[in-house]
Amino acid sequence: MKRIIASIVVTAFAWAAAAFASDAPPTTAPAKSGAPQTTAPQKPEVVAEHMDHITVMPADVKWQDAPPSLPKGAKIAVLEGNLTAPGPFTFRVRVPDGYKVPPHWHPAVEHMTVLQGMFYLGMGDKWDETVAKEYPVGSFSAMPQGMHHFAWTKGETVIQVHGMGPWGITYVNPSDDPRNAPSASKQ
Fold this sequence. Notes:
The protein is mostly beta strands and 187 residues long. The chain folds into two domains: 2-38; 58-186, Sandwich (Jelly Rolls), CATH 2.60.120.10. The protein contains one helix and eleven strands. The strands form two sheets. Strands 3, 4, 5, 6, 7, 8, 9, 10 and 11 form a nine-stranded antiparallel sheet that branches. Strands 1-2 form a two-stranded antiparallel sheet. The longest helix has 20 residues, at 2-21. The protein starts with a helix and ends in a 16-residue tail after the last strand. Residues 4-48 have low confidence and may be disordered.
């Protein structure tokens, strides 16, 4: 009897290990009762192997100039992760009143929460404020990979963005990309 139980336990552990190692989505098989039953959990895209508990208090937020991929005037504070590497990230962006980001998209799902100010978000390839939605403090948005959108603010605004890196931004119209603008030294 002990051998049978030990064999069942070993088989269950081997099955679970194989299920987590598989890239295949969960499969369903009819249970004895006839109801579908999930037989294999889906493997997460990225697993943090040695993630520590992270706590950032308001006084500890370190603001710096945003990367050149964002229009001038933005400040960024990275709270978690490396924006240029695979893995989870969380950052905040602080922008002045009237800040605008032309139509663009991101290479991965983007989650955004408004912490301060008023954020306006529109979907599409062209700037059209009539299709935008107002996002007051506490609002949340999750945009799928590649969704074309644009944004602007009223009042100094802070948003928090999180997702799986690497983070990036591609402008629908390359001439809107601040990285393509002539620098002051070239003028």
